[in-house]
Amino acid sequence: MKPKSQFGLPQLATLLTRSRLDFFAEGKFWHVRSIPLKNKMNLTLAGLDHLIRGVKTVSQPTGLMLEPADVCNLDCTGCWTNDPGHRHKNRYLSVAHFDKIMKELGDYLNIIWLWGWGEPFLNKNIYSMIRKARDKNMVVISSTNGNITWDEAELEELVRSGLSKLIVAVDGLDQGTYSKYRIHGRLEKVLENIRKINETKKRLGSVFPLINMRMVVMAHNEHQTKDFVKLAQAMDVDIVSFKSMCGYRKDDANEIFPAKTKYLRYELDALKRPVSETESYYCYRPWRRLEIFADGAVTPCEFDLKREYLLGSLDDDIPITAMWNNEVMRTFRRQFITAIDQISFCNHCPYKGQVVWDPTVEYHWLTEAAKA
Questions:
Q1: What are the start-end ranges of the E strands in the chain?
Q2: What's the pTM?
Q3: What confidence category does residue 4 fall into, taking pLDDT thresholds of 50, 70 and 90?
Q4: pLDDT confidence of 243, banded at 50, 70, 90?
Q5: Phi, then psi, of 38 in degrees rounded to 5
Q6: Is the pLDDT of residue 78 over 80?
Q7: Quick one: pLDDT at residue 5?
Q8: How many CB atoms lie within 10 A of CB 167?
């Protein structure tokens, strides 16, 4: 399913006259109501920037990828967090930094992706962050490896926070298959946490957060996809999704890619290596969203891991709204338009060369709340 454009004329008319916005993100249509005037105007201007694609925008970002923690309790294959030059940073987004974000961007944002390169729920302040964002009428989506020890109070905090959707990584149906990628992870703990969240939702009378049980489809688990859906149905999960394996860390990636074409993100050559030049990727991020890392670094993209285009820091006195159009950001947009292959993280972007519209190549909506 490929949804209609978020900023088509019908959407614009509905936004301006009825203060409503309907958009598709992370496998779900979201319906935002009672949008304040300031936010409506920013969305309208963002639509204009989306079309013009100039080096300076007239709008502020409408979406934000925000990293709560730059540390993880697993050692997943290919993840940047566990790169030898990066591991053990142990950085957590502070409440003060989050409050600065809400103060400066809260009136403009419509969605926050609350994850990054670490495990978000290792940051114990995440529940208050979710509540504050939801108080601003944003869609808030987070992701977890599920290897978290939640007590009853924390489970209630999670449900009461108003989190819109929680993606839970479940990359296998038995411990051997699961831990081949999720190294040091315990499958039974993940499944038990899903059960506990659903029990807490029922007890508190909440349909949120929607639980999305997700499998990254690889060579060693692709035979389990049908049974994966059956398990999710038995566990009253809201959404099942199958995500294609990216080639961002391309060493030995050809050993991981599945055999079934439907689960491939790229066209592969005879040696199962991505042919990344076959398709160009249309990227809207330079005009629509920011990345803020756990240490407060502000950049144009989550793949700017070396901070090549560092716009600023939350510790600076400069407002984030000013960083959005500062000299570094204008230079980035200009180079993005004229010489994108000279931007290292764009040149090696996992979305570059993909032959699918959405890297998550298959969804199953299992509950009425998920279908709404």
A1: 21-24, 29-32, 63-66, 111-114, 139-144, 165-169, 210-217, 239-244, 289-292, 297-299, 312-313, 360-365
A2: 0.93
A3: very low
A4: very high
A5: -60, -40
A6: no
A7: 44
A8: 24
Q: List, in order, residues 6 or more apart from 51 with CB less than 8 Å away.
A: none
CB 107 within 8 A of CB 79: no
* Residue 231 structure tokens: 């398990």
Q: Is the peptide bond before 209 cis (omega within 30 degrees of 0)?
A: yes
Per-residue confidence (pLDDT) for residue 103, from 0 to 100: 97
- Residue 360 DSSP code: E
What are the residues whose beta carbons fall under 8 Å from the beta carbon of 9, sequence distance 6 or more? none
Q: What is the mean pLDDT of residues 213-220?
A: 96
At 125, list the tokens. Answer: 């302040």
DSSP secondary structure, 44-77, as one string: HHHHHHHHH--SS-SS--SEEEE-SBS--SS--T
> What does the CA dihedral 180, 186, 187, 193 come to, rounded to 10 degrees?
-150
Give residue for tokens 């055999």. Answer: 259
The residues near 203 (Cβ < 8 Å, ≥ 6 apart) are: none
CB atoms within 10 A of CB 354: 24
C-alpha distances in angstroms, 286 versus 68, 108, 114? Answer: 22, 16, 19
Helices (H) and strands (E) in the chain, counts: 13, 12
Cα 348 from Cα 331, distance rounded (Å): 19
Rounded to whole angstroms, what are the CA distances from 352 to 69, 269, 358? 26, 16, 12
Query: C-alpha 362: how far from its chain's center?
Result: 16
Partners of 290 in beta bridges:
64
Task: Report the C-alpha gap between 353 and 248 in whole angstroms.
Answer: 12
User: pLDDT above 70 covers what percent of the chain?
Assistant: 90
Q: How many CB atoms lie within 10 A of CB 118?
A: 27
Q: Which two tokens stand for residue 67?
A: 């990293």
- Cα 271 to chain center, whole Å? 30
DSSP-derived 3-state class of residue 216 = strand
Does 185 score more than 60 pLDDT? yes
Find out whether 144 and 169 touch, Cβ atoms under 8 Å: yes
Q: Which amino acid is at 125?
A: N
Cβ atoms of residues 265 and 356 within 8 Å? yes
